[in-house]
Amino acid sequence: MKFLRKMLLFLCSAVLLSAFAVACLISLLCMMKRSVKSTGYDSEHKPPFHSTLSFQKSCNTRLFTLNELDEATKGFNEGQKLMNGSSGNIFTGTLKDGSHIAVQRVQCDDEQDLMQVLNRIELLSTVLHRHLAHILGCCIDSGYTPMVVYEFPENKSLQNHLHQGKEPKIGLEWYKRLSIAAQTSSILAFLQHEISPSIFHHDLTTSSIFLDEEYNVKVACFGLLANSNLYRSDVYDMGIVLLEIISGSKLADITLILQKIRDGKLEEMIDPLLYYHEQPPFRKEQIEMVADLATRCLIFGGSGKLRMVDVARELVHIMKESIDGGSKRRPGLEETFSNSSLLQMISMSPDSIHVP
Predict the structure, then answer these.
(1) Annotated active-site positions, please?
(2) What is the pLDDT of residues 263-310, one digit of tens each?
């Protein structure tokens, strides 16, 4: 009997210990579940936790908080809006340290869109080039609306200088406009032909061409959802930019503009501040050549018959003529630049780096 009581006591103790262990395990699981629920992302407003977590681990850029960007842009006030992009709006702002920024908000529909945007941000962050706007970081705690933060030079964007109404466009004489066009096409050609995988802008406008204090180009505000049906080709968009550089204004009717160019009425659309009638003959010819190139960008850009490297080659050649003061004979483009030599010119700068 004594032995039996000991066995019963042992069995009861074992059962109680097992029950206690199970209870502790259940409590621990419940605590972990509550912790994840309280600190994770709400499925209706936030992206899935594992997506942003994996991005946080691999991201080499600064991660801004939503509060930081909300304060910098004054609550994303309409007065701070720089442009309405195809994949999201861009707002200007100032950080607490005085840095001027442009914040691009990208609206994603699902996790697949979100990861595509984050991958594009990470890829762009690996490219350092003197004509590419520096990406300061991004914000991923804003749900399915990730944000990318670019540096925003104090000279603002090309649009700010071209579309000022009656105010004088200080500093934008023809050579500076031509240089801006050549630099823009050159950096885009570099991204498309020298980077793997190739990077296309997908949303090029005069608003996405930032200018530093010396009017050097800093291309920004890339279309980050590349599968959108809204996107035209970069070459087509470059044609629009070239026409705005010539006209100094937004194009209300592209068909009408092209008709004027075909009819030999280019003078009617040229920005009065370019003082076309006072320009020397070689400079008038340059403006006409750029208008012709813009027309070909619009006609052939979508079909791929005209590539960005071809556009860059022509603009670099025209700019070279402008530096030389014009020439009586315009050599064939094949005699001037090959694709490889142009890209070498673009990428020779020591601050043109791709970090895989």
Answers:
(1) 203
(2) 889 999 999 999 999 999 999 999 999 999 999 999 998 888 899 999
Tokens 């020397």, residue located: 280
Q: Is 210 strand, coil or helix?
A: strand
**Alpha carbons 322 and 175: distance in angstroms, whole number:** 7
CATH architecture designation of domain 158-350: Orthogonal Bundle (1.10)
**274: burial class by Cβ within 10 Å (0-12, 13-18, 19+)?**
buried
Res 93: pLDDT:
95
Q: Provide the 10 A C-beta neighbour count for residue 28.
A: 10
DSSP letter string over 270-311? S-GGG-GGGS-HHHHHHHHHHHHHHHHHHHHTTTTSS-HHHH
CA–CA–CA angle 17, 19, 23 (5° rounding): 115
**Which residues make up the CATH 1.10.510.10 domain(s) of the chain?**
158-350
> What is the fold of 49-151?
Phosphorylase Kinase; domain 1 (3.30.200)
Q: Collect all residues with Cβ–Cβ distance below 8 Å to 93 and sequence separation of at least 6.
A: 69, 72, 73, 74, 80, 100, 101, 102, 103
Question: Is residue 57 pLDDT above 60, yes or no?
Answer: no
Give the three-class secondary structure for 268: helix
| Distance of alpha carbon 355 from alpha carbon 31, whole angstroms | 43
Distance CA 47, CA 69 (A): 19
CATH 3.30.200.20 in the chain is located at 49-151
Q: Are 125 and 60 in contact (CB under 8 A)?
A: yes
Chain centroid offset of residue 233 CA: 15
Helical H runs in the chain? 2-39, 49-58, 66-72, 111-125, 158-162, 174-193, 234-247, 254-262, 281-300, 308-324, 333-336, 339-347
